[in-house]
Design brief:
Number of domains: 2
Shape: globular
Number of strands: 4
Distance between the termini: 35 Å
CATH topology of the largest domain: Rossmann fold
Number of helices: 7
Order of helices and strands: HHHEHEHEHEH
Low-confidence stretches: 1-27
Radius of gyration: 17 Å
Oligomer: single chain
CATH architecture of the largest domain: 3-Layer(aba) Sandwich
């Protein structure tokens, strides 16, 4: 459930200031740039603001910047295992960490999104051999650290896989911590690459 209109307006205002857009003089064009270029969609903006407020209230403290020491493997989880989590896995491996990835809502055996492959290649990484794996078909270890991209995926993971694993939100490891990294699959190219940059920053914080 999302906040009512008055609360949402305040949240959008805070988000505009957070991302460097302030004042009505920016006009509709700048607002559209803010929404689609920085949040992916109107739904992405609402979800970002909603979870940002909850994070400020401490709702996700237990899933923020969980210690990675003594974690043999990091498993990155998103929805489709084609955009966010495969990039995170590849980058973590390049930093010397044992890593894997899977998706909560995907079939098995599909390649990464071409845009993710392009972005990875621009950072010296390769997703050419990546194949999607559904979380239900993935073999988890007891000492895995499970990194999800969105707060809702915490509950979804626990319902589908179980509550015996340690979970953390990827965005909380960024320099400017955020609880929610929107799925870029149906978004414009500008946001897609912005999202992937956020994933890279988060992984650097996890492995750094």
């Amino acid at each position: 459930m999302f906040p009512d209109g008055n609360v949402t307006c305040v949240m959008i205002s805070k988000a505009r200031n957070h991302w460097g857009f302030s004042g009505p003089e920016q006009g509709d064009y700048s607002l559209n740039q803010l929404v689609y270029g920085r949040f992916g969609s109107k739904k992405g903006l609402l979800r970002f603001c909603y979870h940002w407020v909850l994070a400020r209230l401490g709702a996700y403290r237990a899933f923020s910047r969980v210690d990675t020491v003594n974690r043999q493997r990091i498993v990155f989880v998103c929805s489709g295992n084609i955009c966010r989590s495969p990039l995170a896995e590849a980058y973590a491996r390049s930093l010397g960490r044992e890593a894997a990835s899977c998706g909560l809502n995907c079939g098995d055996g599909f390649p990464a999104d071409p845009r993710a492959m392009e972005f990875a290649a621009s950072h010296g990484l390769s997703l050419d051999d990546h194949k999607t794996v559904n979380a239900k078909d993935f073999i988890f270890h007891n000492d895995d650290l499970i990194i999800v991209m969105e707060p809702a995926q915490i509950t979804e993971f626990q319902q589908k896989i179980g509550e015996d694993h340690t979970l953390a939100l990827a965005g909380t490891y960024c320099g400017n911590p955020i609880p929610y990294i929107h799925d870029p699959y149906n978004c414009c190219e500008q946001f897609f690459f912005r999202c992937e940059k956020t994933v890279i920053e988060a992984v650097r914080g996890i492995c750094g």
